């Protein structure tokens, strides 16, 4: 483990790892679970007993991603980290760690955080070199100005917290569906297909972050029936669609479809001291 970067969610001091327990100077302690992650999601921040993704959607996503369909995106993000010479990174909403684990290969220190404990448990088995944390975007589990970059792939963007944990001039990489993402699937699920509007993020983030680069990655593929079912189950479209349309689509033996990802690279604006 490189430099200590984890932060106590109660008193916001730095945590140090002794054997299998993270401790702060105030005496708050957090044990590393046998699977290899630490839970820094303190009770007062919780809204439900099992927040985050359902075990079904976690399973579906893991199975789908293992098929390699989204590998072009995984590789594009890794290439950006190399280009930006990132040493320490925080992946927000890391899920089962498909992207995080690839990022870890090209940085010195990698922290993955997700609110869904069931997803982080799986991630921890995948790669022991990542510091896996169950936590929330409301209080990111790392110290002020400790990260060269943060990534949010199809995940929330707690911008004030991201600005806090990024070093000056640090980068935020956001990946969100581009307007035509999975169009053929959405067309089958919905009467009316509303295009995604990724540009709204640029506007929402403009006070704290300056847009430096943008690109769209298209990944066309043909899905067999099982992969199609997994894709439907892992997307938010699943529970918005009518059950009839969903089951009709799930009965197709294959579907030709294109995933379209919008990647934005932002840099933290330096607020001059007033």
UniProtKB/TrEMBL annotation:
Signal peptide: none annotated. Zn(2+) binds at residues 8, 11, 24, 28. GO terms for molecular function: metal ion binding; S-adenosylmethionine-dependent methyltransferase activity. CDD domains: AdoMet_MTases (cd02440). Residues 90-174 form the Methyltransferase type domain. Pfam families: Methyltransf_11, Zn_ribbon_RlmA. Residues 7-49 form the 23S rRNA (guanine(745)-N(1))-methyltransferase N-terminal domain. InterPro entries: 23S_rRNA_MeTrnsfrase_RlmA, Methyltransf_11, RlmA_N, rRNA_m1G-MeTrfase_A_prd, SAM-dependent_MTases_sf. This is Uncharacterized protein. Keywords: Metal-binding, S-adenosyl-L-methionine, Zinc. It comes from Acinetobacter pittii (Acinetobacter genomosp. 3). It comes from the Bacteria. S-adenosyl-L-methionine binds at residues 70, 96-97, 181.
